[in-house]
Amino acid sequence: MNKRSDAREKMVASAMKLQRMHGVTGTAFSDVIKHSGAPRGSIYHHFPGGRSELAAAATERGADWIEERLGDLLEGDDLLAAFDGFIEMWKEIVTEEDYLAGCAVAAGALDPESESPARDAARVGFRHWENTLTDACLRAGIGRDRAEGLAMTMIAAIEGALILVRAEGDMRPLDVVATSLRQLLSTELAQAG
Q1: Among 70, 44, 61, residue whose Cα is nearest residue 125
Q2: 134: domain CATH number?
Q3: Residue 101 — φ and ψ, nearest 5°?
Q4: Which of 28, 114, 183, 185 has the most crowded CB, counting CB atoms within 10 A?
Q5: Is 28 among the domain residues?
Q6: Residues near 185 by Cβ (< 8 Å), separated by ≥ 6?
Q7: Does any domain span residue 17?
Q8: How far is CA 45 from CA 40, 49, 52, 54, in A?
Q9: Do the domain assignments include residue 155?
Q10: What is the domain count for the chain?
Q11: In angstroms, what CA-CA distances link 66 with 86, 133, 171?
């Protein structure tokens, strides 16, 4: 990787991490430069569209990162084990940042700009997760309508739990949601037989 693309990659990775903690509007160029160690002038070179371009790239990176983790977890045939692994991944992220980090994709979705590339990236990212989870449910024998509903429910419930975890500074909301989702998934898998 050359220095130019390396600097860009570092800035996007830093913006993703900072966006998880501070949201889109709370992630300033100066913070990204400091966190990434990239040269100051390079941020304007790599992101001529300004902060909105960087926020979109960070949101997309966050979505891709989660998509890769989901793909890895779903390689086996055990949908429940994959679900457990997904929950554990989120617990690690949250505890690593002392309950101050959420989801970079959710942060992108909450961008207050009326024309938001970050929100567009979030929509695409969530849709990919939904398709990935739907496909996994289908492979497990769950019917299409239920598979689509389960995928949407899992994403919405986990994202909501992450907000509550951050607000409460406690893992209890994610634990409660994970238990309920796991029971729902187990019931669907048993019925699919």
Answers
A1: 61
A2: 1.10.357.10
A3: -110, 140
A4: 185
A5: no
A6: 79, 80, 83, 150, 154
A7: no
A8: 10, 9, 14, 11
A9: yes
A10: 1
A11: 9, 12, 20
Residue 6 maps to a domain: no
Cα–Cα nearest to 53, from 151, 45, 131: 45
For the chain, 193 residues long, give each residue's pLDDT as a single digit of tens.
Answer: 455 568 899 999 999 999 999 999 999 999 999 999 988 888 889 999 889 999 999 999 999 999 999 999 999 889 999 999 999 999 999 999 999 999 999 999 999 988 999 999 999 999 999 999 999 999 999 999 999 999 999 999 999 999 999 999 999 999 999 999 999 999 999 999 7
Helices (H), 23-143: 29-36, 42-46, 51-73, 79-96, 104-109, 117-139
Which amino acid is it at 52?
S
Domain around 168: 59-192
With 0-12 / 13-18 / 19 or more C-beta atoms within 10 angstroms meaning exposed / middle / buried, residue 130 is middle
Q: What is the pTM of this model?
A: 0.92
Residue 100 to residues 112, 127, 132, Cα–Cα distance (Å): 20, 25, 27
Q: Which amino acid is at 165?
A: V
**Count of Cβ atoms closer than 10 Å to residue 134 Cβ:** 19
Q: Please check whether residue 19 is in contact with residue 107, taking contact to mean a CB–CB distance below 8 angstroms.
A: yes
Count other C-beta atoms under 10 Å from residue 58's C-beta.
29
